[in-house]
Amino acid sequence: MQELWENFTRRTGELDALAGAMGLLEWDQQTYMPRGSGAVRGGQSAALGRLHHQLSVDPELGTWLEQLQKQKLDELKTAAVRNAWRRYQRSTLLPSRLVEELAVARTEGFAAWMKAREVADFAPYSAALQKLIDLNREAAERLAVIGPVQHPYDALLEDFDPGSTVAELAPMFKRLSAGLQVFLSAIEGKEGPAALDLKLDKDGQRRISMRLLKDLGFDLSTGRLDEAEHPFTVGMDRSDVRLTTHLHEENFLATLGGTVHECGHGLYEQGLRGDWAGTGVNRAAGAGIHESQSRFWENFVGRSLPFFKYLVPRMTGIWPSLELTPDQIFGGANRVSRSLIRIFADEVTYNLHIVARFELEVAIFEGKLQAADLPDAWNAAYARNVGVVADNPRDGILQDVHWSSGLFGYFPSYTIGNLYAASFGACIAEDLPDLWSQVEAGHFAPVLGWLREKVHTRGHIKDAPEIYREIAGDRDPVEDLLAHIWSRQGKLYGVSRPTE
Ligand SMILES: [Zn+2]
After folding, report:
1. How far is the centre of ligand 1, averaged over its atoms, from the C-alpha of 435 (Å)?
2. Among 123, 195, 286, 396, which has the highest number of CB atoms less than 10 A from its own CB?
3. Domain end residue (candidates: 51, 77, 93)
4. In this structure, what CATH number is given to the domain that contains residue 214?
5. Structure confidence at residue 19 (pLDDT)
6. 282: CA distance to ligand 1 center in Å?
7. Active-site residue, selected from the candidate residues 101, 262, 359, 361
8. Domain termination residue (choose one: 93, 113, 132)
9. How far is Cα 302 from Cα 294, in angstroms, rounded to an integer?
């Protein structure tokens, strides 16, 4: 048994090391790599990817896992074997012909999407998208043998959010969308807080970003912050976490949201357990719970009035001539409007953009929608959920890169993250009665300590829905998110929740 376990953890450690090296190459590509080095980088990434795949599908690994499954294992080992078996199945169930076709279709899909965006016409993208849909439908069918898959879309969810299912998400998203419509109707025609244009120099934005990371508890001896076109975070290990942000000279609120969001991802990565290295349990339990950490800091904390009471004096320290009150920036950061572009959406309507995409993806994998149907279906889903329709496909179906890269089943993670974050926020407010005075004083350690204990150090010992239940019990995350919105944005718009 001991030898079996050592073989297994050695292999998992090797796979983690290779994945970390690939992550580092990716980070470098998006930050410091010279523009002319793309071709050689492509070769390096592909070579490491092949090596990673070979080690992942090695029949010897399968044998070890089968033998381990017959043993009596403690909680950590049980989780390690369950996670690894899933990954092994995912790697071995898809024939290499399909894997190669998918890789080609992704490259072609991305190029076709770029072309379509350039000419603002869906047509040049349609065939490439259909190919990606067909191949992903085939993959979903083949992967449906893993776990209790009841819906063709479940196999895709499983890749990003193990444990989440259409049966559970669909009614939750439906209730959330309905609840948000009630809110949007209530604020219809209300002026709300004033818009805020914060044009601030990049050097100061860089300084305040670093200050924020330190104050929020991000360890800069095992992590760093750099600039990238699109902010992202990559954790090679808890001891090497790379954050990126984008400095928007014309819009400081956009920089702030991005920096705090990525810091939330980074704090999760730094909070994973070092003594679980090599088990594969020392990683996030899914994309949705990862997003719950970024959104908790970005929205629940980072858009609150106490947070701005902490931040404004630090801002005027950097920009002494700045005239700004915490109430002004709080209002500016919490304006709500129905809009076309997901990534620019506010805390309230963001989720409606996700519900629209979820409905479309589910219909695609039920075989009800083909690529050619999607432009009309997209507009209908937007009219139904968000309440606006694009007159240009660039602001509509062509806005996201995800589908063009073969990424189906990822979008729900964003709203799962918002839902979890809302319940975590409600739980923290109960557990830490002086939460908001601590935030106002810039003491974020109690909040971080709570997240460390309840979420970060749990790694992937259980699937995210179970970790959520352990923390939140039978709380209703939809109700928590709606209550949060009525109490924050509702107050700013002078509306209160109708009693049913
Ligand atoms: Zn994120």
Report:
1. 24
2. 286
3. 93
4. 1.10.1370.30
5. 95
6. 19
7. 262
8. 93
9. 10
136, HSE (Cβ side, Cα atoms, 13 Å)? 32
Task: Chunk the chain into consecutive blocks of 10 residues (it has 500) and report each block's average pLDDT, rounded to whole numbers.
Answer: 94 96 93 88 88 94 97 96 94 90 89 94 97 96 82 92 94 97 96 95 98 98 95 95 96 96 98 95 96 97 98 98 97 97 94 98 96 97 96 95 93 97 98 97 98 98 96 98 98 92
CA–CA gap between residue 108 and residue 128 (Å, rounded): 7
Ligand 1 centroid from CA 299, angstroms: 12
445 Cα: distance to centroid of ligand 1 (angstroms): 21
Whether residues 51 and 169 fall in one domain: no
- Does the residue 119 lie in any domain? no
Q: How far apart are CA 219 and CA 239, in angstroms?
A: 9
57 Cβ contact partners less than 8 Å away, ≥ 6 residues apart:
88, 91, 92
Dihedral, CA of residue 177, residue 385, residue 181 and residue 335, to nearest 10: 100
The answer to whether residues 160 and 254 belong to one domain is yes
Could you tell me the strand order of the sheet in which 240-245 lies?
223-227, 240-245, 233-237
Q: What is the pLDDT of residue 499?
A: 84
Ligand 1 center to 291 CA (angstroms): 5
Give CA angle at 372 (371, 377), nearest 5°: 85
Q: Residue 148's pLDDT is what?
A: 67
Which pLDDT belongs to residue 46?
Answer: 86
**Ligand 1 centroid vs 254 CA: distance in angstroms?**
14
Asked if 472 contacts 424 with a C-beta cutoff of 8 angstroms, the reply is yes
Q: Using an 8 Å Cβ cutoff, are 86 and 146 in contact?
A: yes
Residue numbers of the domain that contains 3: 1-93
Say whether 298 is catalytic.
no
